[in-house]
Amino acid sequence: MKFSTQEEYGLRCLLLIAKDGGERGLTIPEISKAEGITTHNTAKILRALRLGGFLESARGQIGGYTLSRKAEDIMVKDVLDSLGGRLFDDEFCNDHRGSVNICNHSIDCSIRSIWQMVQSAVDGVLKNLSIKDLIASEENLVSQISNFRSVETIKL
Questions:
Q1: For the whole model, what pTM was predicted?
Q2: pLDDT of residue 74
Q3: Which is deepest, 19, 51, 100, 129, by most CB within 10 Å?
Q4: Is 58 helix (H, G, I), strand (E, B) or coil?
Q5: Domain locations in the chain?
Q6: How many helices (H) does the chain have, and how many strands (E)?
Q7: Is the pLDDT higher at 153 or at 7?
Q8: Phi-psi category of 110—alpha, beta or left, where left has phi over 0 and alpha has psi -120 to 50?
Q9: Looking at residue 9, what DSSP letter applies?
Q10: C-alpha pair distances (Å), 89 with each of 22, 58, 60, 123
């Protein structure tokens, strides 16, 4: 199980823009160079982030990308959901049922239960983290995550 490069680069681009914090914003070439991503991929990722409601863009000589709202109001879970979706969702069993119309294990499936628990744990962490939290040092972030008291429980 792994996250896509679009999700990774999307978060990196948002962090760079949030750290910049300038009213002018950052251009595609500036972001591309700073993150080591091709300008084509940077443009594609920034478009997805803009359509997801996380960025605003301005054209022209003094144009660039800025956050559409405060960094503390942009939750990591929402960004990842927008860029790539969830690790597990209700359609998973339909998409991975094999060559039959209905999954052989649709009634009593321990595998589905595992994925639901993993997704619940991931959601429990990500829904409490904002882009502002990710700007902090790694040590502060790890400390914050370890202080989460509860992870969403799943009803099986």
A1: 0.76
A2: 96
A3: 129
A4: strand
A5: 5-146
A6: 8, 2
A7: 7
A8: alpha
A9: H
A10: 37, 35, 41, 12
pLDDT in tens, 37-47: 999 999 999 99
Q: Are 64 and 27 in contact (CB under 8 A)?
A: yes
Q: Is the domain 5-146 a CATH 3.30.420.10 member?
A: no
Q: Can you read off the two tokens belonging to residue 156?
A: 């099986």
Tokens describing residue 101: 């119309």
Q: Residue 14 to residues 53, 106, 133, 147, 154: CA-CA distances in angstroms?
A: 12, 39, 12, 25, 31
Match 């595992």 to its residue by tokens: 114
End-to-end CA distance of the chain: 22
